Predict the structure.
Amino acid sequence: MSKESIKSIDARLDHIQANILKGHGRRFAAHIFFSIKNGGLQSFLEWLPKFDVTSAKQQLEDSERYKRLRLNAVNTNFVQCIYFSYSGYKAAGWEPWAPDNSAFRSGMKSPDRQKLLSDPPVTAWDNIFQSEVHGMILIGHDDQNLLKERLLQLDAQISSFLSFQIQFGRMIRNESGDGIEHFGYVDGISQPLFLEQDINRFMNKNHQPLQWDPSSDADEILLAMEPKTGAQLGSYFVFRKLEQNVKGFKESEEKLAKVLQYEGEAEEIIGAYAVGRFENGTPVLLSGSEDLEDRLTNNFNYDEDELAKKCPYHAHIRKVNPRNAELKRSGGGANNRRLIARRGIPYDDYGRRFLDEENDVIDQSHHPTKDVGLLFMAFMNDIQDQFEFIQQKWANHADGPTQNIGIDPVIGQTNLGNEAMQQWPLTWNSSVKVPADFHGFVTLKGGEYFFAPSLKFLNDPIA
Ligand code: HEM
């Protein structure tokens, strides 16, 4: 990415909301789904400019201060953001300024989107997502009690004109302190990078020439044109509550290990074949066991593993980011076009056991079948070209991006029968493959498409 495009982002940091160019990183987050009550519009419009939305610039300054002063949780700052659905733009009287992406305008609940993505019926979603959602407020903090206090204050301000429900997210960690998702895998490793400091850190850590260059052009894949300001200051935001059946995933892993005749520790490779990384982050492309020293590396591509002898084609991370190779063959367009800025956080609606509450370390021997999962969130320039393309054409498709490889074992959704089966290497680096079906452990419980407007817009949204 050119120096000019980095500079042009710098000039916009005051206007772009926090959490878009870089994840907010707070331990606790409240996701407040709201709709404007009948007769509540005026009060909403009066309240909005008083709601303190964090800018990207503020976020960077806060995180610099946090590191410099080595602050503890109570002394960190809140991060506050607000996003609107298309029905939210309409309810607020801003229809002339609504972004024009057609998936955004249809909404995630619409029958066309549901069919396209093979999503479960809306009637099976959590109540909170079944009715019309006008927007989402995000409030994050490192201290749970301070977050609760802030929510009580917010409730006092908004409950007369907004009806709302809250979905909580909380970071969870493994014993090494890495952020994980509920199946137990380190998450949030591979991201497109937009800011000079993040790009420099990556470049300094990895020898050139790079196998994978995550530096990305924000105007191409992240920021979207905002009709009122006429500038690329906003971003489309996809929210999906994805329930994880941890017990089912682990049992299937064991069953498949028996078929492929792995025992004890060696069983772990089945999960790595499903995800593309071992639980501790080690890419299965680079090692057949969890012992790679640079386990969180993101500097690799699949060019040398064309026959998928080490990392199966179906592996979640290879499906959703084929890193050049398959794209060149399948004509998938410019590689970076499909990248998304993931900002998810795990949720736990009914209390999974924590081994160490203070450090968010969960008891991984306790395997829930429901009520835990991932609040999948991602920012992007275009919902159809990015999130929907990945989910529909790659994850849900037995032929995506390479022919006849089965669906994504983590997030693939399909009505197909056997065609969905994946091909599992008999041993690491072997071309002998065993067909088996592994899917259905992640279920959509609801979601919506939103737009994150700029602070410029939020300060003066009236047409
Ligand atoms: C409960 C659902 C999900 C789970 C458990 C999950 C888990 C993971 C894990 C463990 C990684 C590897 C760590 C990393 O590179 O950050 C990963 C990477 C990734 N996931 Fe997911 N994920 C889920 C849903 C999704 C969805 C819905 C999408 C998009 C449609 C998605 C897109 C990605 C992408 C783009 C990467 C980075 C791949 C790379 O660049 O190597 N994930 N996910």
Notes: The longest helix spans residues 144-158. Residues 181, 183, 185, 187-190, 242, 244, 275, 277, 316-317, 320-321, 340, 342, 373-374, 376, 387, 390-391, 395, 410-411, 442 surround protoporphyrin IX containing FE (CB under 6 Å).
